Amino acid sequence: MTSPPDPAAHPSGPLRPLGVSFVLANGIDALVGQFSKAVVIGSGVLLTAVMTANVVARYVLSSGGFRWAQELPTLIFPFFIVAGIILAAQGGLHMAVEWLYDRFAARGKAMLFVFSHVCVIASFLTLAWQARVVAAIAGVEHSPILGLPNSIGYYVVSVGALLVAVVTATATFRVARLGWDARPHTSAEELPL
d(Cα 139, Cα 86) in Å, to the nearest integer? Predict the structure, then answer.
């Protein structure tokens, strides 16, 4: 995630002090980013460990591996993917139609950014709600070996969609107040872990 522009170094001159609302937005953004990075790293390590252990167990154990290791990756994978989606949205690396912004001046770009991101926020809040509804239905079924409810993945999608809406809202807030240059624009090479 890139940090918001420094008010003193802003190209159009010094901006007024950012205030409590910016500190809160940046704090929420940083908290969601750190949480998502921890989930990506933790779930990635866990996926690798479980799958490696199962491959080794197939050759060592007469049972042909761990039965539970066939279910566990399907439960962990949604955490890995959804946290990555949150980080991509936070850094501005999600899908976007950039050529349209090139048709406008900075103020028009900012207005289009805010409008489109309000639509994105509404869409992800709807997804969060609907995933929760589906999770309630899927929770009736349980995995055969671990006995865990099949709703886990849907709840992960629900929470992830909510967090994407949150990071999109903080980016939208910054662009609405500071202008086009405050948008997130991280390249894939800039993402620190």
Answer: 24
